[in-house]
Amino acid sequence: xxxxxxxxxxxxxxxxxxxxxxxxxxxxxxxxxxxxxxxxxxxxxxxxxxxxxxxxxxxxxxxxxxxxxxxxxxxxxxxxxxxxxxxxxxxxxxxxxxxxxxxxxxxxxxxxxxxxxxxxxxxxxxxxxxxxxxxxxxxxxxxxxxxxxxxxxxxxxxxxxxxxxxxxxxxxxxx
Length: 175
Description:
- The protein is an alpha+beta fold.
- It has four helices and four strands.
- Strands 1-2-3-4 form a four-stranded antiparallel sheet.
- Strand 3 and strand 4 (133-134) form a beta hairpin.
- Helix 1 packs antiparallel against helix 2, helix 1 (3-31) runs parallel beside helix 3 (95-117) and helix 2 packs antiparallel against helix 3 (95-117).
- The longest helix is centred in the first third of the chain and has 29 residues, at 3-31.
């Protein structure tokens, strides 16, 4: 992908992820109350406001605060800058991989914004499932990260770009 369209795709993906996630979290903080679960669609969707000091499924929430900051804020910030640089400058990336990297970075940046604004905590409020089979509580940024990771996994063995048709070479005529 050429550099200007690549830049536009990456920036639109990043801004969309951060904008949608931050808007939904603002609405969740305004409309939901901690400890109260709102059930929708025959309980297949639950809205439950949580402030997560850890990472995925509260992993690391019990770590000391300085270690959580180092891992989940400082180290993640460096990783996210690397992902954006890779999505912008890595050669031979397919459009799908560029978008996937931007989705992971966009979701990560939005969660990083939460950590910086809300004392190291990320706002989570979505839970889906059927009966007792349920996900953990998550947010739209987590969905963007998972979508990007899924695309990267599915495209792992795919060529970097669509294969060009073979060039025809002159063949010798039989004599």
